[in-house]
Amino acid sequence: MEEQDQMQSSIEVEELEEQQQREGKRLEEENVVRFLDSLDSYVTLLDSLSSTLRQGWLELASARQSMGASRINGALLDLKFHSAATSLQVTHHDDEILNQPHFTLCKWASSKNGYGDEKLRENKLQTNSDGPQLRHRSQFAEKIPETKGAPLIVDDQVQKERTKSLSMFGTLVSPKLRAAQLSFETALETLVEIANVRLTMLSTSDQVRKELEGTEG
Amino acid sequence: MHLSATEYGPYLQNEPSPLHTTTIVEKCTLKLVEDYKHMLCQATEPLSTFLEYITYGHMIDNVVLIVTGTLHERDVQELLEKCHPLGMFDSIATLAVAQNMRELYRLVLVDTPLAPYFSECITSEDLDDMNIEIMRNTLYKAYLEDFYRFCQKLGGATAEIMSDLLSFEADRRAVNISINSIGTELTRDDRKKLYSNFGLLHPYGHEELAVCEDIDQVRGVMEKYPPYQSIFSKLSYGESQMLDKAFYEEEVKRLCLAFEQQFHYGVFFAYMRLREQEIRNLMWISECVAQNQKSRVHDSVVFIF
């Protein structure tokens, strides 16, 4: 009877150990998958950034062709002091898995308008956070959301800020210049996403390396 | 390398490699200016006045460049380097001290050929981006109308050919003003005031263009005019990217036709405009090469003859 009890408890202990090993392996595999996912996202975003910038530079050249070199050149850039229309915020999350900073782009937000971070962001590529969202625009003509009136007001203000920043080249500018502005805006958003994804990639890479070293040890 | 075998070759041969797009454009423009001055110094009245009229557009662009750059606290020397050489005049640097249009006129422009064009836009309002834009377009409108009247006075084949070319220019400007002002603070009345008082679109087309809120409405207006129907038929709905090229192609076609007739001054205007188109082509090609996007060369190159 005692022998049977001992055998049963040793079987239970073995089963528990096996379960723990399986759990440990599952976590290792999860980390590897997370690392590979972030690597894939990183490479995809780099490619997207490259093509967006190429498109932006060509659109700028096209705008120059259309409006003339005297209307689009570096000598017209405004050197007067003014507050930044776009800023980058760094926040820290208390996530146990990914204890890392998170970058957020605050576009077209100025103290005059009072439009804070919460209204102007949308994140296309969601990371492991409840972080703010970034807005992505790929067309000059805005797609007006169907739901509420507030987003329409925000879109109008954003459009005004965009027009204001282009006004150094004149108030009546070609649609090509506006398209170039949108392309560079998208490229800036992509850059911030790349920074976030890179942080995730480095963090998961560290974890995988530690686990491998632990296994070898 | 290819330009070395052309008349632009001597202007570029001493430039260090790699050649930048701005250098190519600058040197080709220098060649154009020399050719223009060669024609001007051998011209008598009224051809010399006709040739001078061709440069007033560049003068207006230079004035606006200096005023805008000064508003943005840029150095005057830097701005002068960016001015088009065909539009230079003696007191151009003094533009930097003017605070409003009245001062612009009184201090500088009263002694230039642009003086008569200022009567419609002299105000004491401070110069800002919107006022400068309105000033630019008002000046250009006055210039085009004055040039048109001058050509009508010359009469004959010059009047006939230049009337067609300048009307096309006025109509193109009306379309560009309409499209570029969509979504801006420019009111309908202000937009209408910037359209010239001649051209195929005057006056009924202008009435309709003044109220257009998007590109498709502009297309709807322009398609009622047969000469412009062919231009807009090349574009898909909602598209405006290829509109410039379509207009340039139509302009080049009309400029080439100017050489079919004899004994008129329109050939000089056509020559200068076609040379400017050639330089625009070179600028686009060199941009595509510099950006490693050679497949996009045909997006904006306009073939001449």
Key structural traits:
heterodimer, A: 217 residues, mainly alpha, two-stranded antiparallel sheet, 3 helices, elongated, B: 305 residues, 61% helix, globular
Sheet/helix structural class of chain B = mainly alpha
Q: Tell me roughly what share of residues is in helical segments of chain A.
A: 55-70%
Number of helices of chain A: 3
Strand adjacency order, main sheet of chain A: 1-2
The dominant shape of chain B is: globular
> What is the CA-CA span between the terminal residues of chain A?
40 Å
Give average pLDDT of chain A, whole number. Answer: 77
* Alpha carbon gyration radius of chain B: 20 Å
Q: What does it look like?
A:
Chain B: It holds the Pfam family vATP-synt_AC39. Chain B: InterPro entries: ATPase_V0-cplx_csu/dsu, ATPase_V0-cplx_dsu. The complex is a heterodimer of chains A (217) and B (305). With 217 residues, chain A is mainly alpha-helical. Helices cover 58% and strands 6% of the residues of chain A. Chain A contains 3 helices and 2 strands. Chain A has helices at 2-67, 149-166, 175-216; strands at residues 87-92, 101-106. In chain A, strands 1-2 form a two-stranded antiparallel ribbon. In chain A, a hairpin with an 8-residue loop joins strand 1 and strand 2 (101-106). The longest helix of chain A is centred in the first third of the chain and has 66 residues, at 2-67. The radius of gyration of chain A is 25 Å and the shape is elongated. Chain A starts with a helix and ends with a helix. Mean pLDDT of chain A is 77; it is low at 111-148. With 305 residues, chain B is mainly α. In chain B, 61% of the residues lie in helices and 0% in strands. The longest helix of chain B is centred in the middle third of the chain and has 26 residues, at 129-154. The two termini of chain B are 23 Å apart. The model of chain B has no long low-confidence stretch (mean pLDDT 90).
Quick description:
With 217 residues, chain A is mainly alpha-helical.
